[in-house]
Amino acid sequence: MKLTSKLLCLGLFLVLTALSCSSINTPDTIYTNGHIYTSDISNSKVEAVAVKDGMILATGSLAEIDAMKGKNTKVIDLEGKTMTPGFIESHGHLMGIGYNKLELDLMYVKTYDELVEKVAEAVQNAKPGEWITGRGWHQDKWIERPDNMVKGFQTHDKLSEVSPDNPVYLRHASGHATFANEKAMQLAGVNRLSLEQLSSEVEGGEIIKDDLGNPTGVFTERASGLVGRLVPQSTEDKDEQALEMAIQECLEKGITSFHDAGSGQGFIDRLGKFKTEGKLGIRMYVMLSGRSPELLERWYESGPMIDPDHYVTVRSIKLNCDGALGPRGAWLLEDYTDRAGHTGHETLPMEVVTEVSEKGLQHGFQVCSHAIGDRANREILDRYQTAFEKYPELATDHRFRIEHAQHLSGADIPRFGELGVIPAMQAIHMSSDRPWAIDRLGKARIEEGAYVWQDLLKSGAIIPNGTDAPVEPVDPIPSFYASVSRKTLAGLPEGGFEPNQKMSRDQALKSFTIFGAFSEFEEDFKGSIEVGKVADFTVFDKDIMTIPEAEILNTKVAMTIVGGKVLYDAKQ
């Protein structure tokens, strides 16, 4: 071959190589002109981010990223807004969010009379005999209490008056108590005479009764099943409608990943169907419900399902070990301050925690145990520790969790860091519950171990944050605000409750991003804005990291991006 031909071939090769390399390093999208917080190890800020094929290609200065731009690169001008890694809801109940929109939503009811009015309206639109269901009431959040209260709860009389022909079943906001009318109790065979057989104390729960021995309509924990088992089962069409609504709600609130705290096979199959149909939108990390031993046995045999697409992963188990503080079901070491002789409920035999912890280690499953009271937290830590010591070679990276971990004995706080147990907490519970929680626990226990975020962080633990939706709205902004202020959403008290336990804004951001990712074994894929990680972003209209504390609650989500695709845009 002549020299000239060789040179021409070489030149063509170099041009094609350059074009190929240019294509590989050319982003399809650039985000710029905003406050971009990476949530990396140093919580750094960058001026721009380049994305290609749904993954982060580069981060850096405006000049560095702008130099990568190609003729087909789309530039998204953040217009001074704030972009963070996609927010991760680390403990919620996705179907509950959807069903709150399909049934009576009682979350914002301020009095018992208002609850009765809502039920009366539903009765007008219902056929005789049709069940009326809802969720969200919380007697301690009402601005005025009804005249007739038994053990801190309302009675069914007014409710039953407006619904004589319709059974009514209303779940407490916490999910740990229910309220039924007379018609529903008649169908369930619950009356003063039957209580002698049923006993007011149901194992793992309680039927609240008045001084004459009549049921008041309030059932706590496992006792709720006496009426709840009669509520008609949902249909698949309704389930899919609820799921669609829940996903959209998450996207509108900036949630890109969701840890579902306890579901069954039907829910997992539904998620798979939505993924196949391109309707899933958010990334799901599912905890298997420990209420179904048969379900767990099937999954022990098959092993975890870790999605290579990072959309539907099943590798954890949820155990429900005590109740909630509102209905006095949280399991305490000492009596409730406002109810002598009562320490709450163990809702699951502790030997089951031991068994599931050991099998979880053996079969590759993370164990996540609901515990609110200090007794429940201690019992679970003890059983986790026993399992770790029995199988030390399997416990090197277990990432076992305690869900809520709200009220701890001071002696148990260091154990979270020592054992590598993750306290998955929801800061919004402090904001909502603290004003009345002191009545349940008293000042000394509140100060020693209630919502002790800084003490847990200092122990070496990490805290993934969330809302426990639909116990609280899935919006993470109020929970972020509670994390850094330790105030109610009304901005009280001045300085916050137990202010030494406040999170810094850096810690709060990490609790909703990289800590959430770590809690589901995904910290190498998401949770921070770093090269090689997925382009999941949340864009806020205000700089939540610098604006005055009081303005945080006015912040709105401007955009939600999952895998480089804008799935929610407030402008559209």
Automatic annotation (TrEMBL):
Record key words, sorted: Hydrolase, Signal
ATP-binding keyword on record: no
Zinc among keywords: no
Single GO MF descriptor: hydrolase activity, acting on carbon-nitrogen (but not peptide) bonds
InterPro entries on file: Amidohydro_3 (IPR013108), Metal-dep_hydrolase_composite (IPR011059), Metal_Hydrolase (IPR032466), YtcJ-like (IPR033932)
Signal peptide: 1-20
PANTHER family (alphabetical): IMIDAZOLONEPROPIONASE (PTHR22642), PROTEIN LONG AFTER FAR-RED 3 (PTHR22642:SF2)
Protein name listed in UniProt: Amidohydrolase
